[in-house]
Structure formats: C-alpha cells, structure tokens
Specification:
The complex is a heterodimer of chains A (about 240) and B (about 190). With about 240 residues, chain A is an all-alpha fold. Chain A contains 8 helices and no strands. Chain B has 2 domains: about 90 residues, RNA polymerase sigma factor, region 2, helix turn helix motif (Rna Polymerase Sigma Factor, Chain: A, Orthogonal Bundle), CATH 1.10.1740; about 80 residues, Winged helix-like DNA-binding domain superfamily/Winged helix DNA-binding domain (Arc Repressor Mutant, subunit A). Helix content of chain B is about 70%, strand content about 0%. Chain B contains 9 helices and no strands. The longest helix of chain B is centred in the middle third of the chain and has 23 residues. Chain B is globular, with a radius of gyration of 18 Å. Classes of the chains: A mainly alpha (about 240), B mainly alpha (about 190). At the A-B interface, helix 1, helix 2, helix 3 and helix 4 of A face helix 2, helix 3, helix 6, helix 7 and helix 9 of B.
Chain lengths: ~240, ~190
C-alpha cells in the first residue's frame, strides 16, 4: 500500500511502488518537471532590473554614510554638553560656597564681586585706607573709620579660593592677628593674608548697611577683629 | 549556476556596492526566482522579481550565511512579495485555463517548435490543481532542490507541515494524472 506513506524523495527519483501504476505517472511528471519547466529567461528585463539595483545600491550607500556621520558628531556634542554642564555646576557651586563663606564671615558677598573681577591676583599691600571690597559707597559713615577715604577695591587682593588664610572667622588669625592691617584678610577675600588691609572693617561697614543681620564692626576699632565680625553682629551706632 | 567558491567574494563586493557583483548575483538568482514566481501564479512576475532584488539590496548588510542560505533567503523574500501581491490584488494565484487531459492532448499533437512552450503551459496547468502551498512545496523541493527545512523557512511553516503538504500534493497529482477525467480544482 504505501499510498499514505509514499517517500517523496523516492518518488521524485523514480523509485515508485509497483503495485500502483498511477504513481508511475506522478513519478514521471515530477521527473520531467525540471525539463518541462526550466529556469526563466530574464534577458528581456535584465538591463532594467540591474539599473534598478544600481540605483538602490547608491541610495543605500548614501543612507549608511549619512547615518554614520550623524552618530559621530552626536557623541562629541554629548560629551561637550556634559562637560559644559559639569563646569557650570562646579562654578555655581564654587560661587555659592564662596557666598556662603562670605555671609558666614559677615561680609556681603555681593560687595566682593567687583574686587574679584577687577583685581585678579594683585598683592594685598594696600593700606587701610581702602574701603575694601564691600562697596565703600554704601558703607555706614560711622564705620568708615578715621578718614578712610572710600577707594575702589582695586587694591584688595583677590585670590580665588585658594588659600585659606583668611580664616577669619572665629579665630581672627588673619595675618598676625594684630588687627592692624589685617583687616584686609577679610571674610570673603578668600585666602589672603592681607596685612594692612582694612577690608574687614570695610566689609563690616558695608555689611552693616546692607544687611541687618550680620555685622558689625562698623567702627574703626573693629579693625583686625575681622574674625569676630561674623560671630557678633553688633549694630552700628 | 551557483557561484561556489566565489560566492563570498561576490557577496562582499555586492555589500560594498560593486555593480559587477550585483550583476553576478542577479544572473545567478533571477532565472530561478522568476520561474518560482511564474509557477506560483504571480500576475506580474517580472515586477515582483525587481522588488525582490530591491529588498535584497536594502537588507544585504544584515545577511549572514553561505550561498545556500542566501538562496533560501532570496526565495523567502520572493514568497513574501508574492503573498503581498496576492493580498494587494485581493485574489489568489491564477487557476487552470483548461482541463488537464486537453492540455496533455495538445502536448502530443503540436509541432516540436511549440512543444517547449506547451510543455511549460501544461506543467503549469497541472500544478494549478494544487493549493498555493502545495504548489510552492512541489516547486521548491523538486525544481529548486531545497530541503524540507529550507522549504519550511521559505513558506513560513514547520518542517512537519511541509511534509504533510508534499504528501497531499503528490496524492492530488496522482488523482489528476491518473484519472485524466478533467479533475480541476484544488485537492
């Protein structure tokens, strides 16, 4: 029998069951299929098809090249943006930290900005006459001290966040701690041992007018006591 | 004619856009692809053939395999294009134009010059009694010499389904060729 179990490969090969002649016709048909149905002739359409293929090849090549170019710059742009964002964040952090330190020391950080901008790296040898980085114009008149003219903060040394010598703070050990000329080591002038600088006093002066809270020392006697200014904000007379 | 040992070289060159490589691939595949499309009842087999090669160009970069796998992949694309054309046309492949006995009679009583064309036409008419899937299995397995697994990949069915289809196809051919009673229609 084997009708249902005919081996297809044997049938195609001509090895048909002898009990059923009809399988012979099927075997003959399948055996002659290749001869009766040869591969088609494509000569009539070959040129047209190859032109279509060539055009598609160009399109695919252009597309791949464009995709490749887009991926490279995007990576560079991404890294640049990240670096820019990181730099901006770091600058903002530094600025905020500096402002915080200044505020903690009783100095109006905004008054330090002109000094920071105008006097990068100048040495702090200016006498106490300087009004300091706190904006002399707004200083309390009583705090200006004896004949201390308001001078531009150009002489205030600016050393960006480097040296922690201006630790005025509680220790007041700016410079020699003597208070004279050490006012320059003012709060907010980060890192400077600025002997002879009256900045603290001026800073305090400025502060007294601009901010109710901090600071004190609007009086000349406050020179050198920079370290305390922040701690004991006394109102100026 | 298979490319044999040159296949890797030709395929690499085609991937890089070499026109000569694409011409070789076309001459190697196009005749059998066109035959497959014609035997499957495609309304416009030449247009489908062009679509097949466009698809091959677009996706060659992602192909990996040898010559046999490439042929199977090309026929898979052809089968997909064929099914899409059926769906777009809202119909199935063309049916037989006449009874099989009449076709066979014409085959034996015409001039030899016309015999080749008649032979092809008669073969197609006999194949038309099969369902589309049965016909595809017969053509792919007998004419193109694909294995059961390759045929399954091309028509998108399992190997077991392919075996069932080919068994049913030969039974249908046996009934059609054996009876010779104008047994048209799918079996």
């Amino acid at each position: 029998m084997g009708i249902d179990e005919v081996d297809f490969d044997r049938l195609v090969a001509g090895a048909v069951p002898t009990d059923d002649p009809q399988w012979g016709k099927v075997s003959a048909f399948l055996g002659d299929l290749e001869a009766n149905c040869p591969p088609s002739n494509v000569s009539a359409v070959e040129e047209h098809h190859l032109a279509v293929v060539a055009r598609e090849v160009r399109l695919v090549g252009t597309s791949r090249l464009r995709d490749h170019r887009q991926t490279v710059p995007s990576g560079v742009r991404t890294r640049f943006r990240r670096a820019l964002a990181a730099t901006g964040a770091a600058a903002l952090f530094a600025l905020t930290a500096g402002a915080g330190v200044a505020a903690a020391l009783g100095v109006n950080p905004l008054q330090l900005l002109p000094d920071l901008i105008l006097t990068p790296g100048t040495t702090p040898d200016a006498p106490a006459s300087t009004t300091g980085p706190t904006g002399p114009s707004t200083a309390d008149p009583t705090a200006s001290g004896p004949g201390t003219p308001t001078q531009p903060p150009a002489t205030v040394p600016v050393r960006p966040s480097g040296t922690p010598t201006a630790t005025h703070g509680a220790t007041g050990n700016c410079g020699n701690g003597k208070g004279e000329g050490n006012a320059s080591c003012t709060n907010g002038n980060s890192g400077k041992e600025n002997p002879g600088k009256d900045n603290t006093a001026k800073a305090n002066q400025g502060k007294s007018t601009s901010k109710p809270t901090p600071t004190p020392k609007a009086t000349p006697s406050n020179k050198g006591k920079s370290g305390k200014s922040e701690a004991t904000p006394t109102p100026t007379p | 004619m298979p490319l044999g040992s040159r296949f890797s070289l030709v395929l690499s060159a085609a991937d890089e856009g070499a026109d000569w490589a694409w011409a070789e691939l076309y001459r190697d595949l196009a005749p059998t692809l066109l035959r497959f499309l014609a035997t499957q009842g495609a309304a416009e087999p030449e247009d489908l053939l062009a679509e097949c090669f466009v698809h091959i160009v677009r996706n060659l970069h992602g192909f990996e395999g040898g010559e046999a796998a490439f042929r199977a992949w090309a026929f898979t694309i052809a089968r997909s294009r064929l099914v899409d054309s059926w769906r777009a046309g809202g119909r199935r492949p063309v049916s037989a134009t006449g009874s099989v006995p009449e076709t066979l009679d014409r085959l034996h009583h015409h001039e030899a010059a016309d015999r080749d064309m008649l032979q092809r036409a008669s073969v197609l008419e006999v194949l038309d009694v099969l369902t589309p899937d049965q016909r595809a299995v017969i053509v792919l397995r007998v004419l193109d010499q694909f294995s059961v697994e390759e045929t399954a990949q091309i028509i998108g069915k399992s190997a077991g389904a392919v075996k069932v289809l080919q068994n049913r196809a030969v039974k249908a051919l046996r009934r059609t060729l054996g009876s010779g009673a104008g047994h048209d229609g799918a079996l």
